[in-house]
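Homework help board

Subject: predicted structure for assignment chain

Our instructor gave us this sequence and asked us to write out the predicted structure in token form, then describe one feature. I got the tokens but I'm not sure how to describe them. Can anyone check?
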Amino acid sequence: MKLYGIPNCNTVKKARDWLDANNIAYKFHDFKKQGIDEATINNWLMQYPWEKLINRTGLTWRGLDDTTKSSITDNASATILMQAKTSVIKRPVLVKDGKIIALGFDENTYKETLKP
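My token output:
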């Protein structure tokens, strides 16, 4: 399993703490240090619409100028933005075998999805 996010994000910290407390093994992918490749984003876009993958309530989105915001209209433009500004991706993204099993952190979702 792989958890994608940014180390200093509070929501990512909650997810990591929960996974650690429940002894669930995962690899952490740091968007800031490792970026995100187009193939991964394309895989995610087959599972979720770009409107769900881009966090339009976050500081990164709100900090974009209106021209940039209005230019994000489809998967292609969303992919370019997500690669250029990884902080705009809703986090964390928890992936197992290429499938997103959780987008964002919700303790109940993690319990239902990950507990035997």
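Reply (TA_rk): Your tokens look well-formed. For the description, you could write something like this. The helical segments are 10-21, 31-34, 38-45, 50-53, 59-62, 66-71, 75-84, 107-114. That's the kind of observation they're looking for.
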